[in-house]
Design brief:
The chain is of the alpha+beta class. Helices cover about 65% and strands about 10% of the residues. It contains 23 helices and 13 strands. Strands 2, 3, 4, 5, 8 and 9 form a six-stranded antiparallel sheet that branches.
């Protein structure tokens, strides 16, 4: 599932959008200018801010909202209960405008200001809505647990007061977070709760947003048919509501699915439509994701110039959204809010206490003595500061030089990371696509977790000349950039070998010769000794036979309660003492329900657990055998959770690849 769908989806759930016609905006604008009653003018400005926000005119909404708040400060109405509620509503509208513009520090400032007012006037509905919006910001910064905490609190407040629209909205946002964390069943459960309430309320906006959320879960699970159906239903409703942000989001998601189905022209057409609307309304998050997907489209089509152009636009808008200063401001505002909240609680307690007694004469004397001492210390410090100033001037030049060098190093580091990220896209185009796997395998999962951005592990698949289907799970020498480069050499060598060979052992023999020949020119005295460990499985679904050749990597077949282990040859596909020895070929007659597992050594060799030891192949084999009866996607989710919990606070030491295929 792409980040685009998850990011935009969360925004949609946290802000209910209602479209107003232009006549209403013109009418409110005229009333705000002509009404002589300041309290009425405040209300008109608040309504005007809300109307502009619903149409996506965020700059005009911000202008009207600020004018409303400034006018409210000057009149007594602004200090009444009704005035405070209106002021909090306006601050919330401003926060939402900033959020859609991806100006998260300003959005948080407005949301926290509104939240304090709602708490002070005990308005639980407004308080819960603010918590949902703040949860949005936490989610966008990757703080999923804090976002869930905020959303759970909002759901409880809405439930306590029986406010059904709020319950539906909170359930929907929690569904999005569960999806982001990979808990798909929980996500669908929350989404269908939200959908049921929205249908009961006949809330078109809520229904459209929930369809979008359900589509995203199916999207993540690879069920593209149901995902497309729900995205298209959502887009129809967004168009009826004139919700441009929703139209841009759902159109982008449709383009993403078409891209995964390798329908490049159709995908690019949808992405360009989404980008046009996103630019029109200033939705930076959607535009950023569109640029990234368009760059990938052009790279697949071989249009490297176009891919580079869109990649540059993606980096520019990404840097404008997520910068270090913004993150710092977010943390500062969160801390400030918590601090002020505690101070407010302390002051409320102090009001119930008796007034403090007057300060005694002796206390005043001590205060004066303390003041004189401070003045004396300050004089001493001033003299010392003058002495130190000269020293500072000498070191300042040196500091400036160091900062300049540091800046250059950081720039080079950023360029390297950007290049590696782009290299990861290129490497991804060499591994087996979802389309070829779906076309040839009935039921399967792929667990692929590179240690770094690019990987030495890879999985490759191809139809062979005799009509059988080959699937390789491989671990190239090294990981990171060197491993990724080696993986490209290994893939191209496999593709060359299958031009003439169809038996797994012959394919590996030929591949080994090609790799050795190509690495003779690496500059070393004996020629390169790099290569790969791999298990090459060839499926003949007409005869239900599986033919295997394996280099250092085993193949496990779970058949009911029985585990069949296909042991590999103890040599790599590359230069070795036994390079003249042919790889062994083994044949297995498959039975319906068999699950075939191929893997690299990354999972079993990972350190972790309470004692920091390796996971071990035996434990992994037993884990697979105990859960082979589960649906393949549930197996994948279980393996991901197990691996994450095993690693804990340690770091991943190698690339991880594990593939399961049910016959």
């Amino acid at each position: 599932m792409s980040k685009r769908a998850i990011l935009v989806l969360y925004f949609l759930f946290c802000s209910t959008l209602i479209s107003f016609c232009q006549n209403k905006i013109d009418s409110l604008s005229a009333l705000a200018k002509s009404d002589k009653d300041d309290s009425m003018k405040v209300k008109h400005l608040n309504s005007l801010c809300n109307a502009y926000e619903d149409q996506g005119a965020y700059e005009k909404a911000i202008e009207a909202g600020k004018a409303c708040i400034e006018l409210a400060k000057t009149i007594s109405f602004g200090k009444s209960m009704r005035g405070e509620k209106l002021n909090a509503n306006t601050l919330t509208n401003l926060g939402t405008c900033y959020m859609y513009q991806a100006n998260y520090d300003m959005a948080l400032e407005e949301y926290f200001s509104a939240l304090k007012i709602y708490e002070r006037i005990r308005n639980d509905k407004g308080r819960a809505a603010c918590q949902l919006n703040i949860g949005t910001i936490y989610k966008n910064q990757g703080k999923l647990d804090k976002a869930l905490e905020m959303d759970s609190s909002a759901l409880k407040l809405f439930t306590d007061i029986g406010f059904k629209p709020g319950i539906a909205k909170a359930a929907g946002t929690m569904g999005t977070l569960y999806m982001r964390k990979g808990y798909y069943n929980k996500a669908l459960e929350s989404d269908f709760i939200a959908l049921g309430i929205f249908k009961e309320l006949k809330d078109k906006a809520g229904i459209s947003i929930t369809h979008n959320s359900i589509a995203s879960v199916y999207h993540s699970q690879g069920n593209y048919g149901k995902a497309l159906e729900n995205y298209r239903n959502a887009r129809v409703l967004f168009e009826e509501l004139n919700d441009k942000n929703g139209v841009a989001a759902s159109t982008a998601n449709i383009g993403d699915i078409l891209l995964k189905q390798n329908k490049i022209p159709e995908a690019k057409s949808q992405l360009l439509l989404s980008l046009q609307v996103a630019i029109e309304i200033g939705a930076k998050e959607t535009a950023k994701s569109d640029y990234e997907a368009l760059a990938f489209c052009d790279s697949i089509s071989g249009d490297w110039k176009g891919a580079f152009h869109y990649h540059i636009l993606f980096k520019q808008i990404n840097d404008s959204i997520f910068n270090i200063e913004s993150a710092k401001k977010t943390a500062e505002m969160t801390a400030k809010y918590e601090s002020e909240k505690k101070e407010s609680q302390i002051k409320l307690l102090e009001k119930d206490k008796e007034k403090q007694s007057a300060i005694t004469l002796e206390e005043k004397k001590r205060q004066r003595l303390f003041l004189y001492s401070v003045i004396l210390i300050l004089l001493i410090v001033a003299v010392f500061a003058g002495f130190m100033y000269n020293r500072w001037k000498v070191t300042q030049k040196q500091k400036h030089l160091i900062e300049k060098q540091k800046h250059l190093v950081e720039e080079h580091q950023k360029e390297i990371i950007d290049s590696i990220n782009y290299a990861e896209r290129i490497q991804r185009s060499f591994i087996a696509t979802t389309e070829i796997l779906n076309e040839n395998l009935h039921d399967y999962f792929v667990l692929f977790k590179p240690k770094d951005i690019v990987s030495g592990d890879f999985y490759w698949a191809s139809k062979l000349n005799n009509g059988t289907f080959a699937l390789a799970t491989a671990d190239s020498t090294g990981h990171g950039v060197p491993g990724a480069i080696m993986s490209l050499l290994n893939v191209t060598s496999l593709e060359k070998a299958i031009e003439t060979d169809t038996n797994p052992s012959e394919i590996l023999n030929t591949t080994r010769k090609i790799i050795i020949e190509r690495l003779k020119k690496d500059g070393s005295l004996e020629g390169g000794k790099d290569g790969m460990d791999t298990s090459l499985t060839v499926y003949d679904f007409k005869t239900n036979k599986l033919t295997i050749a394996a280099a250092n990597n085993p193949v496990w077949i779970i058949r009911g309660s029985e585990t069949i282990e296909i042991k590999p040859d103890k040599m790599p596909v590359g230069k070795h003492d036994r390079q003249a020895t042919s790889f062994t070929q083994q044949e297995i007659e498959l039975k319906q329900g068999d699950v075939v597992y191929t893997l690299t050594d990354g999972f079993p060799d990972q350190f972790g657990g309470e004692k920091g030891k390796k996971f071990m192949s035996k434990n992994l084999r037993e884990l697979l055998a105990a859960n082979a009866h589960l649906p393949m996607q549930d197996q994948k989710e279980l393996l991901e959770i197990t691996f994450k919990e095993w690693v804990g606070d340690l770091e991943q030491i190698d690339d991880v690849t594990l593939i399961g295929v049910r016959v």
